[in-house]
Amino acid sequence: MLSLLSLTIVPLNALASSHAEAPLISMDRFADNTDTYAFRSVEPGRQGYVTLIANYIPLQEPSSGPQWFRFDDSVLYEIKIDNTGDGREDITYQFQFKTRTVNGDTVLGHTAVNQDIAITSLNDPDYNMPQTYSVRRVDRYTGRKGRLVGSNFKVPPANVGPKVTPEYEQNLGQPAIGNLQNGGRVFAGNRDEYFYIDLGVFDGLNLRSLGDSGGIDSTKGYNVSTIAIELPIQELTRTRTVPTSATAPDAVIGVWATASRQSVRILTDNDPFEFGGWKQISRLGNPLVNEVVIPLKLKDAFNGLSPEDDAVAAPFVLDPELPKLMQAVFGINIPAAPRNDLVSIFATGIPVNPVTGPNYTTFLSDGKPHEYLRLNVAIPITPIANINRLGLLGGDVAGFPNGRRVHDDVTDIALRAVAGGTPFTPATNVAPNNALGDGVSFNPEGPLLNRFPYLLPPNQGNQPRSSNQQP
Length: 471
Hints:
Elements: E1 6-9, E2 33-40, E3 49-60, E4 75-82, E5 91-99, E6 131-138, E7 147-155, H1 168-173, E8 178-179, E9 185-192, E10 223-232, E11 252-267, E12 273-284, H2 289-292, H3 296-304, H4 314-318, H5 322-330, H6 340-348, E13 373-376, H7 410-418
Antiparallel strand pairs: 1-11, 2-3, 3-10, 4-5, 4-11, 5-6, 6-7, 8-9, 9-10, 11-12, 11-13
């Protein structure tokens, strides 16, 4: 007989992304969406596909045994696409996870000595708490329940160390890539936290450097939980075809990721269980928006909003606080409000204009602000060897704010954009505004993979973590 210990009701606006930037989501890290990416696949031979990545569970210490980190079975993780510009999702990919226990009698957990201690395959009995997941697509053809596009995909275990998880990527990482019937692929599991930033920025903008080097990568050595899906371009556009040009009306898609929990949770003597409607508690489109643009009083609410309702945040994009702080700390001139340049970058997309030319646009809007990544799927990819970390500011039109690649240095780009150091605000597009940075311009743990899912394998648990060392 169940013994009822607690009943928790979660109201829609009571719960709250990017690395614990809002008060409530900072207390629910397994639902915390840290980064979202959307880009045309740069893996050779995959140019006809788009890769969408959503990272969750920030700043994971690799040696957090015996349980380590895994996706929360009670969270609904979603990647959403708006291809009409009204701020509503037209396509949603839903990911739900299920964990089982092989041996409940062991004192260990995630891994156990059920056979020989080493986990050399995804089906190894020593993987004591294996996790699987399903993927559903919801769109106007499937109805609200959606269509199952794949199930029983396997999540690899944590990278425990060379004894338990030898040859991690070969034995566990690569085999965890699942194939979809449409030729796409899917992956879910731990990866290296590739988003690099000197978090000294939150010490009153007390950065060690304001340039390309001299800073400290505060996320170095940590892991993150990654959901990645690669899909044919035509499955994401409003016409269900590949756009004919970068200015075609179906060329731009909007992308964001969310996490939701059910409204009621019951705690018992055994495992808790949940029921009721899903309530969104985390949301992430463009990087750093909730952290450095949305005011504290709206941060939790913003995480529960749909982009359809973003007009409530528009005043804070038109006249944000951060550039004023930068002016006070760095002694720089900043553009006057209203900041229509920031509205274009983050809330409506960039229309065709003389600065970026007749063949560049990320505009996707019905005339209202909707904050999410905007990816023009008709702009050609930049080969990996030629990618510029500054994206559009570096002359690389395939990069941020045209979507977001894992290669893009969004911190430096955002600092310069907020300071008005871009061609869209010519009066302030001068030094130091257009050369600002956090002193970290690459991930010192190595170059990204040149294949899906692109992010590096997770850092080993049985190794000294190299965080907070000079890159």
